[in-house]
Write a structure and sequence with these properties.
Number of strands: 10
Largest sheet: 5 strands, mixed
Distance between the termini: 64 Å
Oligomer: single chain
Order of helices and strands: HHHHHHHEEEEEHEHHEHEHEE
Helix content: 40-55%
Strand content: 15-25%
Length: 367
């Protein structure tokens, strides 16, 4: 019975780690955004790690995937099981902290392929912890499947393939796009809220300073606020989250007006997406004006979208000789639309027809 439970745990944990690792390895940039949230002041308060979030993300997902392979083939069982245990203990603590204090709304465990609430993420980690503890207590039952030479070869192949996959998606695009803005998506439909969709239940909480101390009062308690109390703030506390459309916070703003309704009706619209012009890749930016002219000659409306301020826009235009206009959109939304900075998106009446990394501009098929 003990052996059966151990072997089941070995297969379950190994496969889950491989699947989770490959999903994140498909989009390491997206996972790095999630790590940056955890490194921020509201969770781990380790802001000095934020500039290295992408490198850390790549290393973590490669290590996670390879650990799954090593567990399945029984390679270096002591190192493998100890590594699994330390990882799951750390992430169980992290997901509990995040869920209890409501710091990060999605752990990013399975990227955009499967969204988990904070408490679902914590529950998943607790279940994994149980299975990994079974492996830890029964390490001697984890037997290698092959000879040492073959085990070494398999492990090296796993590392090499993961490294190549990471390199490829960082220099092109995710192999599989799980995001709300994947090719074929109609942005207008993605923003629609169906009739009868559940609405959020919000409780208003009022904060008053009473004898020098901030105290919270619910709406029903407002008649009982002590005399001399001073109003400080009002917080809208979400009790139940309502329906949120897959696409939200999408805008194309300029000079105080949102032009998305106009542009999403364009039969030929080419968009240069650069969420932050200050850190956009110069190699990519240098190609945009040439593509702008080629697209306009074929009847395209060409615009840029960024979350950068006017001074950064003016600087980029001057540096790279850009003649198209930039429109504002939330940085998180732009990061969701595309991972490269810059990247190119082609729309037809609001439907995404093509998306390319700046390294693949030559592959665009402009009709």
């Amino acid at each position: 019975m003990k052996n059966i439970l151990t072997q089941f745990s070995r297969i379950f944990v190994g496969i889950l780690f491989i699947i989770s690792g490959l999903i994140k390895l498909n989009d390491p940039v997206g996972f790095s955004y999630k790590l940056a949230e955890y490194f921020g002041e509201t969770v781990l308060n380790l802001p000095f790690f934020i500039p290295y979030a992408l490198a850390i993300a790549v290393l973590i997902v490669i290590f996670e995937t390879v650990l799954g392979v090593m567990l399945l083939i029984g390679f270096k069982r002591k190192f493998t099981v100890w590594s699994l245990l330390l990882m799951i203990v750390f992430f169980t603590f992290l997901t509990f902290y995040s869920a209890y204090f409501n710091k990060v709304t999605d752990c990013g465990c399975f990227g955009d392929a499967l969204k988990l609430t904070p408490w679902q993420s914590f529950t998943k980690d607790v279940v994994l912890l149980v299975f990994i503890l079974i492996l830890f207590l029964n390490q001697k039952l984890i037997k290698p499947l092959f000879s040492n030479k073959i085990q070494n070869i398999i492990a090296l192949i796993a590392v090499g393939l993961c490294a190549f996959m990471g390199y490829w998606v960082l220099n092109h695009l995710p192999l599989k796009d799980f995001r709300a803005y994947k090719v074929g998506t109609n942005i207008q439909k993605g923003m629609e809220i169906p009739d009868g969709a559940p609405k959020s239940v919000v409780e208003m909480v009022f904060i008053y300073k009473v004898n020098g101390v901030d105290k919270q009062f619910k709406e029903a308690d407002l008649m009982n606020i002590p005399q001399g109390a001073t109003f400080v703030d009002r917080i809208d506390k979400v009790i139940t989250e309502g329906y949120k459309p897959p696409i939200h916070d999408f805008s194309m703003e300029k000079d105080g007006a949102d032009h998305k309704d106009e542009f999403l009706q364009e039969p030929k619209l080419l968009v240069f997406v650069s969420y932050d012009l200050a850190i956009s890749d110069p190699k990519g930016m240098a190609q945009l004006e040439k593509l702008n002219n080629e697209a306009k000659a074929k009847g395209y409306k060409v615009i840029g979208m960024t979350a950068s301020l006017e001074d950064e826009i003016a600087k980029a235009k001057k540096t790279f000789g850009l003649t198209f206009d930039y429109y504002f959109c939330d940085a998180t939304t732009l990061k969701t639309i595309e991972r490269a900075n810059p990247s190119v998106v082609v729309l037809e009446n609001g439907t995404i027809k093509q998306k390319v990394h700046f390294n693949d501009i030559s592959k665009l098929n402009l009709q």
